[in-house]
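Lay summary. Proteins are chains of building blocks that fold into shapes, and those shapes determine what they do. In this project we predict the shape from the chain. Here is one chain we studied, written as its sequence of building blocks.
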Amino acid sequence: MILRLVLVLLLISAACRRPSTRLGATLTPTGQASRPVSTTPLPQLADYSSALKAGHELVATGTEPFWSLTINPSKNRLQFSTLTGDSLTTAVPPMTTNPDGSFRYQTEAGTDPITIQFRPDSCVNAMSGQRYDYQVNISYKGQNYAGCGVSLRQVALLQDIWVLKTLNGKPVQAAGPRQEVPRLEIQLTEGRVMGTTGCNRLSGRVKADTRLIQFGPLAVTKMACLDESGRTEGDFLEALSQSLTYNVTNGTLTLLRDNKPIMTFRKVD
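And here is the predicted shape, written in a compact code that computers can read:
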């Protein structure tokens, strides 16, 4: 009798220590998408959040010796600096463009002129291994500096609120308990995205370079989606789990995979 009582007490104690999965789900307001998503490793993207926050439009850098360049038309400021002590801050001079897509800035900085040439060509930073879209050459104080650069004009256009128009080639209609359409608010300056799947709220990380955009990890609230919004949510989250190329034209954001449009969004006015 005593032995049976001891066994009963041990079983009750073990049950009390085992966490309740139902309680855990109740206490967790957000979670990952329930549908399995792609497990393919995503490529590493450059982090331009600080440059976007500063409002820089053109960024360039080089090594041997190390140098950096930022051009910020909104603040009318061009900054060039090197580890050897040479530096320059001046107003942004007029840009001269060429038919081949290259462009140039040239100015008299006191008694020392500076010439900056951007030429479209794949360029890899020798130290970081980061890929850029331009080869950059700078002539300043009798020295020539070579390196890589990028234009953030297209990247900056991503920063907005976007409402989903089509998904996998089909128009998307408002559905779910709130009669909503999936929406994304992209904040690259903070590396964050917020929005809705059309049924559940979502939030998480986002990063983009001049070609690719990546979302995730994303947290999604756990409201049950039983109608068309549930099917749309699954396809929407699955698409966002992959690295996508993008294009922003005339207030429309297109996300593509293997050069095929997967989703289109319209900009919220």
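What the prediction tells us: The two ends are 77 Å apart (CA to CA).
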